[in-house]
Design brief:
heterodimer, A: 112 residues, mainly beta, 6-stranded mixed sheet, 4-stranded antiparallel sheet, globular, B: 118 residues, 7-stranded mixed sheet, 11 strands
């Protein structure tokens, strides 16, 4: 069975601070994909990134960056210079040869 | 930009009543998913369709839940009778691929239906 752990339940930062959301996963599949989704208060899950298990290159997209380390089974997400609009629940998810499994999410609160 | 549509956005019902949710996936997406998300948790898959066929409904409480995607496009999820524990967000998602690529495809989610059972 696959499992995703997001140990941080809630993080509070002040605008312009950098923040890292942790994600640790467990799977027996040799090929798998990792995802991050953002869920604002409106409820819709917004896709942010997909990374396959063979690509350990870090990725940067604007203020967002992702650090995939297969050796530690982690796929962490960093927001640089956070903004109030970044306030949301962020989910890490894993899929292999079975269904997409989500972590419990990390609520990020960015205050002005 | 193509989106997954869901209705209604909010539904309040009394226990033992029937409720139905509708989902229209992104055009051309073969696979459709229904998830349930309890407050403070991540979404959990209820049922997965590929075209009009059910691929996985192992987590669907079949004594009270039913789902259909008759023409392989839009889909309806029904609960009858609703129970207090069914209060949750019901999310629909779709992805483009079929067969072996399904589990690796990116899923795109709709806005969800927030159900409250009184």
């Amino acid at each position: 069975a696959q499992k995703v752990t997001q140990a941080q339940t809630e993080i509070s930062v002040v605008e312009k601070e950098d923040v890292t959301l942790d994600c640790v996963y467990e799977t027996r599949d040799t090929t798998y994909y990792l995802f991050w989704y953002k869920q604002p208060p409106s409820g819709e899950l917004v896709f942010l990134i997909r990374r396959n298990s063979f690509d350990e290159q870090n990725e940067i997209s604007g203020r967002y960056s992702w650090n995939f380390q297969k050796s530690t089974s982690s796929f962490n997400f960093t927001i640089t210079a956070s903004q109030v609009v970044d306030s949301a629940v962020y989910f890490c998810a894993l899929s292999g040869y079975s269904t997409l499994t989500f972590g419990k999410g990390t609520m990020l609160l960015v205050s002005p | 930009e193509a989106e997954v549509a869901q209705s209604p956005r909010y539904k309040i019902t009394e226990k033992s009543q029937a409720v139905a949710f509708w989902c229209d996936p992104i055009s051309g997406h073969a696979t459709l998913y229904w998830y349930r998300q309890i407050l403070g948790q991540g979404p959990e898959l209820l049922v997965q369709f590929q075209d009009e066929s059910v691929v996985d409904d192992s987590q669907l409480p079949k004594d009270r839940f039913s789902a259909e995607r008759l023409k392989g496009v839009d889909s309806t999820l029904k609960i009858q009778p609703a129970e207090l524990g069914d209060s949750a967000m019901y999310l629909c998602a779709s992805s483009f691929g079929r067969a072996q690529s399904v589990s690796t495809d990116t899923q795109y989610f709709g806005p969800g239906t927030r159900l409250t059972v009184l």
